[in-house]
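for the recovery benchmark. tokens below, seq after
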């Protein structure tokens, strides 16, 4: 999460040896034919930014 999206009452934990290393996950993105311009814009943005969306 980026700091601006952390809900009230939650806090950022400092990395320690007690926590496991973060894992990498993959997400599939499917866009249907005839999707709205907004949906196509989002799909295009996400596919152009692999690895850059992680914080």
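predicted aa per position
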């Amino acid at each position: 999460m980026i700091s601006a999206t952390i809900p009230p009452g939650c806090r950022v934990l400092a990395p320690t040896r007690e926590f496991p290393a973060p894992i990498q996950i993959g997400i599939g993105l499917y866009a249907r034919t005839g999707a709205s311009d907004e949906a196509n814009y989002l799909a295009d943005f996400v596919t152009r930014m692999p690895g850059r969306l992680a914080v």
